[in-house]
């Protein structure tokens, strides 16, 4: 009688294989597929949130606050609306195009560093997110297993210099929920943390986002509520239509506004204009 000789032989064979016994690390496309299987892509999301922006000129004064309403229409369309006593502003991202309108004038065609947190929330299919990460300078050919704040994570990306901060996406190994998104934008190292993921039906959404710029706390986002919704008007996300409705700033003002949005070390005056 042979008595289980084959299983023992098979076990020994795999033990001798190189790399067996180490943790399995999926490649980026497969890993992002698992992430999307976790957080899911619904027809649409409507969210209400408070954004707190640090007063850079006088940190003792705390944060400036603004209320925002967010619309996600999948795949690939997003709108954020801000209304205050002194300002009406909205931004739209659709099919990798972006436009920001403030008081009836188009002021920007580029996402500011503090708006990059929506990448992970908007691109909820693995191919689109993979492309987006590559566009932001993340090396999507590299995936490693690392410990971050005592949590084991998959990390997409790799440092250009050993021990230096690098663009990447950190994903909790046990849950496949994104934890940290880091990119370099307009000379700033942007570090975005996603906390307190919650689920409605099968869709997950972070209830808090914290953003650091060059290791300095910059923005905190607290989500009041989010719901799964669809049926949004297509015109809300039609950038070509928006370009026809609203005039562009003149080049001199446009350049100044871009600095106001992106040069965050001078941002207290800029945010008063953009968000107060």
Description:
- The protein has a single domain (23-274), classed as outer membrane lipoprotein receptor (LolB), chain A.
- The chain is built from seven helices and 13 strands.
- It has helices at 5-16, 28-39, 118-122, 126-135, 239-245, 251-262, 267-274; strands spanning 44-54, 63-73, 77-83, 88-94, 97-102, 105-108, 143-148, 151-156, 168-172, 178-185, 188-200, 203-213, 216-228.
- Strands 6-5-4-3-2-1-13-12-11-10-9-8-7 form a 13-stranded antiparallel β-sheet, sandwiched between helices.
- It is globular and about 55 Å long.
- The chain starts with a helix and ends with a helix.
Secondary structure elements and pairings:
Layout lengths: L4 H12 L11 H12 L4 E11 L8 E11 L3 E7 L4 E7 L2 E6 L2 E4 L9 H5 L3 H10 L7 E6 L2 E6 L11 E5 L5 E8 L2 E13 L2 E11 L2 E13 L10 H7 L5 H12 L4 H8 L2
Antiparallel strand pairs: 1-2, 1-13, 2-3, 3-4, 4-5, 5-6, 7-8, 8-9, 9-10, 10-11, 11-12, 12-13
């Amino acid at each position: 009688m042979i008595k289980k000789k084959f299983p023992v032989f098979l076990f020994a064979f795999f033990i001798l294989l190189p790399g067996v016994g180490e943790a399995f690390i999926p490649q980026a496309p497969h890993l992002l597929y698992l992430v999307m299987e976790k957080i899911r892509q619904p027809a649409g999301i409507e969210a209400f949130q408070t954004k707190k922006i640090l007063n850079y000129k006088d940190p003792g004064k705390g944060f400036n606050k603004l209320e925002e309403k967010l619309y996600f229409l999948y795949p690939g369309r997003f709108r954020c609306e801000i209304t205050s006593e002194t300002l009406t502003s909205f931004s739209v991202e659709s099919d990798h195009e972006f436009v920001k309108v403030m008081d009836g004038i188009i002021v920007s065609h580029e996402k500011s560093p503090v708006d990059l947190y929506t990448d992970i929330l908007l691109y909820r299919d693995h191919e689109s997110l993979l492309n987006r990460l590559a566009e932001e300078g993340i090396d999507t050919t590299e995936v490693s297993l690392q410990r971050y704040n005592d949590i084991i994570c998959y990390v997409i990306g790799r440092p250009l210099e050993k021990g230096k901060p690098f663009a990447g996406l950190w994903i909790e190994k046990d849950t496949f929920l994104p934890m940290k998104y880091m990119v370099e934008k307009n000379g700033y190292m942007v570090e975005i943390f996603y906390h307190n993921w919650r689920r409605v039906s099968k869709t997950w959404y972070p209830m808090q986002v914290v953003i650091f710029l060059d290791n300095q706390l910059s923005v905190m986002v607290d989500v009041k509520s989010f719901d799964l919704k669809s049926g949004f008007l297509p015109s809300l996300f039609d950038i070509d239509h928006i370009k026809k409705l609203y005039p562009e700033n003149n080049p001199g003002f446009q350049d100044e506004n871009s600095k106001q949005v992106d040069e965050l070390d001078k941002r207290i005056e800029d945010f008063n204009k953009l968000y107060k």
